[in-house]
Amino acid sequence: MIDRANHLWKRIIESGSNNNSNFKESLNLQSGANDEEFQLLEHTLGVTLPEEMKSFYKVYNGQVWENEVNPFVRNLTLSPISEIIDTWNFLQEEFDPDDDLEPNIEKELKPLLWNSKWIPIAANGGGDHLCIDTDPSEVGVAGQILYFWHDWGNRTIEAKNLLEFIEICLNEKI
Prior knowledge:
Layout: H1 2-17, H2 23-26, E1 29-31, H3 35-45, H4 51-59, E2 60-63, E3 77-78, H5 81-94, E4 104-105, E5 118-123, E6 129-133, E7 144-148, E8 154-159, H6 162-172
Parallel strand pairs: 4-8
Antiparallel strand pairs: 1-2, 3-5, 5-6, 6-7, 7-8
């Protein structure tokens, strides 16, 4: 799986470099995550990380967001593990279960506006997050990828796992 993750990162960088010769530098990538960081994330969130996520994060542990940082796919910045923890803590504290948003949830998800077993791995800068679902419904798949929209109840499944999601995004550009 690490070979596939390395290949996907190479494709991300090559794809962006076609339009920007400094693309890799503009991603502000962090060195790969280690086992201690994965254990901290699992312990803090109370989840078991999917192997696809671990493989992807072993190559690069997300991006440092700064002005003019390029997204790694779509309009998303990949969060480092420390930022995942901060975002998850924020969502745990700030999410109001009595919110008046009407859920529009796909059948693969449990009917919740926020689930503490979702791992917010990427953001678009506007309060929306790409999440890994470690607690799907009976017809869902552990590790499936969903969008969490902050201002409306729509939750959409994008892929069965992180590496599949990256493939989909890369193929959109072709």
